[in-house]
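Need Beta-adaptin-like protein's 3D structure for a figure. Predict it.
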Amino acid sequence: MSPPATSQRYPSPSQPSGKSEVSDLKSQLRQLAGSRAPGVDDSKRDLFKKVISYMTIGIDVSSVFGEMVMCSATSDIVLKKMCYLYVGNYAKGNPDLSLLTINFLQRDCKDEDPMIRGLALRSLCSLRVPNLVEYLVGPLGSGLKDNNSYVRTIAVTGVLKLYHISASTCIDADFPATLKSLMLHDSDAQVVANCLSALQEIWSLEASHSEEACREKDSLLSKPVIYYFLNRIKEFNEWAQCLILELAVKYVPSDSNDIFDIMNLLEDRLQHANGAVVLATVKVFLQLTLSMTDVHQQVYERIKSPLLTLVSSGSPEQSYAILSHLHLLVVRAPFIFAADYKHFYCQYNEPSYVKKLKLEMLTAVANESNTYEIVTELCEYAANVDIPIARESIRAVGKIALQQYDVNAIVDRLLQFLEMEKDYVTAETLVLVKDLLRKYPQWSHDCISVVGGISSKNIQEPKGKAALIWMLGEYAQDMSDAPYILENLIENWEEEHSAEVRLHLLTAAMKCFFKRAPETQKALGTALAAGIADFHQDVHDRALFYYRVLQYDVHVAERVVSPPKQAVSVFADTQSSEIKDRIFDEFNSLSVIYQKPSYMFTDKEHRGPFEFSDELGNIPITPEASSDIVPAQQFEANDKDLLLSTDEKDDNKGLINNNGSAYTAPSYESSSNTITSQMQELAISGPATSTTTPQSSFGFDDLFGLGVSTAPAPTPSPPLLKLNPRAALDPSAFQQKWRQLPISLTQDYSVNPQGIVALTVPQSLIKHMQNHSIHCIASGGQSPNFKFFFFAQKESEPSNYLAECIINSSSAKAQIKLKADEQSTSQAFATVFESALSKFGMP
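Structure prediction for Beta-adaptin-like protein:
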């Protein structure tokens, strides 16, 4: 019995069945190259499609280059296009093969069909092979004089390509002069636009070393040329119109009549359906009338309607772009748009980024006449399911109140938000109430009566909790439970992870102590002890400062921490007027979208923190040789000595406390020692004069329940984690571990000023950390942003710790990400790392 017949399978055109597939294509193309049989063009099309398909998916088909060129001898324009595509792809990488294409491309440049002439000329100029430049001059010269506008358009673009391949050849052939003549006399608008674009680029590049090019570049801004373009602007497409309008912005009118003539010529461009044309026209109007105040204001009135129409008629992306420009105009002239505030109400189906910008617009246009309606609308958004928009709406209400518009009603609205019992609403509202009380202290009674009923346990967000704590300290005399609420928060110090909240707790406890000393005494002592023992540098420093100033003189401490305050009249603006003017000068650009001048996102030295990937990626990795390891240096550094006088430092030398420090700071121990009246008098009255020697700290410490003993300090305890000073790790192993291990800990540290100065040479930090047995395996970035990858190993066992450290020298902050083989010891390594980093730059 014969086997069943198998169905014939044909290979997919996008997947060659074997190594011989390209060879088969080559032989089939060679057979068809000289054939004139009927239907041969259809066969060529199928083969050409296969070649292009293979080329597209990355298969090397350069071996059929000669056969493709031979098969190009046809009048079929589809075959011509595919052949030109193939040639353009392989010509640059195979200059020798490109010589094979010159003859047939030059022949096609003289074809009777203008489409083929244009395609051949474009392909010829796209070869971009310096050795073939001499073959471009002739076809380009003929193309610029061609009777068909399509060929002339291609030829103008080809001149620019020739300039980038060989500028001298282009200038010697006098092509710029030919382009200028075409620009001023050609009847086709697209040819004129291409000439303008090409000449602007050529003359801008030549102007740096040619006075003639400078003169020619300036001639584009002459009155005859500008008016020539403006009179023909309706003939051009949108891209060309924007090009001409950008040119018109640079024109300097001779007088006011010149300004009005230009504005009359461009009046109908404000009604154009394309947003880019409208914005470019608006920029011309605004720039021309900057020196004419009355006319400039009338321009705002004139451009308002077209811009508002574009906001409501386009896509969300276009609406955002137009709104960004409108926001810039509203900030400069809010009264012009005050009556149109309803255009900035949020629609339910708009994206969040559009809603957020509209909220900023509503804040900017608010005044006495529309505040009630705007605030009513914003209050509706506070219950929005989109939490970020709800937050922004609450902030917008607060900003309007800070502008002194209808403060009474707005304060009532804000206090009603506290009854919504939503964590994010409560947090945002508390922050705004704090700002309002700073500006309007007369509202403290009404606000405190409501805020006093809020439980701190119901506030989870750090900024909301910090605002509540600030009010507890600032208005402790008006809130009967303030000392007890603060005491409860201080008792849970270890559970509070936010350094901002801990800082506010210290300050609030100090303020409350000065107003209600007996009730706050114990809580303040606990807070100071906990703060001094805190791992966060800022918290530690503030607690130590408060401790020292209290120890010196309580009255001085009160004047420092809780002085008489004046109401804040104006809150600092995030942007200076200079930056806003710079953004206005760059109207109709990305500067308006980003709300920052172009140099801030184009110049490297002004960019924000780098967006580093989680991988080492492009950062060069150089493994450290064991011979490069610097021996660890033993030295003593005491950050607490920063607040000591020279005499005190000398007196304290040799004294060692629990932490190995030269200063005996209060330990963090809860104590319930009885406070005698004599000690209380000592703490409240302070020294008789400011020149007296500070009293012994023991009575003072005991006053606050810190439980300091006069017994000799115990022997310093050994460090929790010992690191191997000669640890080694292969870069590839580091990369693999970094990908696999989860992030154990993320923390932000402050870098001391001396360290920031020393960071001008990043190698100094690498050597410093190496002295602490923490080794750098990769580094990158430049001022003000630096990135380092560190690793360390336990001394007793091969357990690795990996760290990513991003330091911003302008803000003096360091962001640390830690990964560890043993997750349980991550905090111990973090303490060692933070200790080493805090000593960077110290003598």
